[in-house]
């Protein structure tokens, strides 16, 4: 199996450098043109592919362009508008509730603090971090989605089990100026190579420093289960 660098800060630096060379144009893949669209898109992306979200929001954003329009729609109307998105019924309710809260509490604007964002329906810390980073240019933490969670555990960067605790661990070893880029690099590599079920370790730029390398390591450190 690969041999991770010590200390973890050195491993992070090497991982970031190698992924940066492999994915020089790494960035967010959701399509949006303003903060409201970004917020809606990220809420819809939970447990759903960005590709599918982009397909659905192309028409959604033409129909609903203001918080008031979301607030005045019914949950059923919004669920129908996002049909094909995972958990579209629940998310239809989130969109309606977000519209109401933005109108009632924020003068129709998307707030710029973690506390205010996570107070909105369907918005957790991960979603709030994305909106802060790409909507307000505020980098307050590291977005820990499923790809970041999987790669950071496989690469020996953390042993923490939950996104919140993984983020707390990563912000201590990833340089602050790399927080935003680190997420996008992990996402790109997680989609292209380090997939959940069948990672392509034979064609991975990180294999030599990965303690989870399939075929050499008996255990997938992401899940703790045998390969």
Order of helices and strands: HHHHHHHHHHHEE
First-residue to last-residue Cα separation: 13 Å
The geometry reads as elongated
Mean pLDDT across all amino acids: 97
> If helices are DSSP runs of H or I spanning 4 or more residues, what is the number of helices?
11
Strand count: 2
CATH topology descriptor of the largest domain: Endonuclease Iii, domain 2
Largest sheet: 2 strands, antiparallel
Strand order within the widest beta sheet: 1-2
Taken together, the total number of domains comes to: 2
Cofactor: [4Fe-4S] cluster
Keywords: 4Fe-4S, DNA damage, DNA repair, DNA-binding, Endonuclease, Glycosidase, Hydrolase, Iron, Iron-sulfur, Lyase, Metal-binding, Nuclease
Protein name: Endonuclease III
Domain HhH-GPD: 44-192
Describe this structure in words.
The protein has 227 residues and is mostly helical. It folds into two domains: 8-26 and 143-226, Endonuclease Iii, domain 2; 35-135, Orthogonal Bundle (Endonuclease III, domain 1). Helix content is 52%, strand content 2%. The protein contains eleven helices and two strands, in the order αααααααααααββ. The protein has helices at 8-22, 35-44, 50-63, 67-72, 75-81, 88-106, 114-118, 125-135, 146-154, 163-170, 179-192; strands spanning 219-220, 225-226. A two-stranded antiparallel sheet has the order 1-2. Helix 2 packs antiparallel against helix 8, helix 5 crosses helix 6 (88-106) and helix 9 (146-154) crosses helix 11 (179-192). The longest helix has 19 residues, at 88-106. It is elongated. The two termini are 13 Å apart. The model has no long low-confidence stretch (mean pLDDT 97). This is Endonuclease III.
């Amino acid at each position: 199996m690969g041999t991770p660098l010590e200390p973890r800060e050195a491993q992070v630096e090497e991982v970031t450098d190698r992924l940066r060379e492999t994915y020089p144009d790494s960035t967010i893949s959701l399509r949006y043109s303003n903060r409201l669209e970004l917020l809606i898109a990220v809420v819809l992306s939970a447990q759903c592919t960005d590709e599918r979200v982009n397909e659905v929001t192309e028409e959604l954003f033409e129909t609903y362009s203001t918080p008031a329009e979301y607030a005045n729609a019914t949950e059923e109307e919004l669920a129908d508008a996002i049909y094909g998105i995972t958990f579209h019924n629940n998310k239809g309710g989130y969109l309606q509730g977000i519209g109401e809260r933005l109108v009632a509490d924020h003068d129709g604007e998307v707030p710029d603090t973690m506390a205010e964002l996570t107070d909105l329906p369907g918005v957790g810390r991960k979603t709030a971090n994305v909106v802060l980073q790409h909507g307000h240019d505020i980098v307050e933490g590291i977005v820990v989605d499923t790809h970041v969670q999987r790669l950071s555990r496989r690469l020996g960067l953390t042993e923490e089990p939950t996104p919140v605790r993984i983020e707390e661990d990563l912000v201590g070893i990833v340089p602050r100026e790399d927080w935003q880029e680190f997420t996008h690099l992990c996402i790109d590599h997680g989609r292209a190579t380090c997939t959940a079920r069948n990672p392509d370790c034979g064609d991975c730029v990180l294999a030599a420093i990965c303690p989870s390398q399939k075929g050499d390591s008996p255990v997938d450190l992401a899940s703790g289960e045998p390969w």
